[in-house]
Design a protein that fits this description.
By secondary structure, this protein is an alpha+beta fold. The chain has helices at about 1-20, 25-35, 135-160, 165-195, 200-225, and strands at about 50-60, 75, 85, 105-110, 110-115, 125. A 6-stranded antiparallel β-sheet has the order 3-2-1-4-5-6, with no helix packed on it. The relative contact order is 0.13.
Length: about 240
């Protein structure tokens, strides 16, 4: 049952990873479109591909920390009094500092507030902002595909080698190194987002770390197959000579 559970996790992870990888090109194109969008000549009355900067007043902001299904959200008010609710993917650097009655500038693109800038000039993308999505998709693809492949191999292996303790140990080494591969990709993505590094930094950092983990996985797997990881209690004991 444990092996079947790992196989199911692997299938789900691979599906998510493939879906994330298929969205990278579209996310890159949308980000390029936004960066190349011209400023609007006047306030757009309908969704438009030009960029318009609009001043808002913060009515309230909720961090929603600890709420798994709730994103950070702020209600911004136009000079006309019309409220505009905006969600964020994270709280830093602008969202966490928002206070009621504070003035902020919202960047409107295709009828959505995609970026918010405070009085100090700090900028933050909203949940509708296109900047950063290619990196998120690539990081998700690296994490899910690497974990999924290792979990699939480590889950199927014991099913085809039943009754072989060393093979079961080797499969366990493969599975847990897959967890490390996925976790390393997530940590790399977090570092990239925190430091605003470009897209190419993700594979440039994760690649060598993944190669190191794969080398360790190979060494541990071969050691398990040779019996180097066998417990002393389960290892066969040599017969002791009997006194004459």
């Amino acid at each position: 049952m444990r092996s079947v559970l790992w196989v199911l996790l692997a299938v789900v992870a691979l599906g998510v990873g493939v879906a994330s990888a298929s969205q990278i090109r579209g996310a890159l194109e949308r980000e390029r479109e936004y960066r190349g969008a011209p400023p609007c000549a006047a306030a757009p009355v309908e969704a438009s591909g030009c960029v318009w900067e609009q001043e808002f007043t913060v009515r309230h902001a909720a961090m929603n920390r600890g709420e798994r299904s709730e994103s950070p959200v702020a209600q911004l008010v136009l000079p006309s009094g019309k409220p505009w609710e905006v969600t964020f993917r994270r709280t830093e650097p602008v969202m966490s500092e928002m206070q009621p009655a504070e003035k902020v500038v919202g960047v409107i693109w295709h009828g959505q507030v995609v970026e918010v800038r405070d009085a100090e000039g700090r900028r933050q993308q909203t949940s509708d902002g296109p900047v950063g999505w290619p990196e998120d998709r690539l990081g998700g693809a690296l994490a899910c595909v690497s974990f999924g492949l290792a979990a699939l191999v480590g889950g199927l292996w014991p099913l085809f080698a039943r009754g072989e303790p060393r093979h079961a140990t080797a499969a366990k080494m493969v599975r847990w190194h897959g967890v490390a591969l996925g976790g390393t990709a997530i940590l790399t993505l977090w570092a990239q987002a925190a430091n605003d590094w470009p897209l190419w930094v993700l594979p440039a950092i994760w690649g060598p770390l993944a190669l190191l983990l794969l080398t360790c996985m190979t060494a541990f797997t071969l050691g398990a197959l040779r019996g180097d990881l066998d417990d002393d209690a389960s290892a066969p004991r040599e017969p002791q000579p009997q006194p004459s």
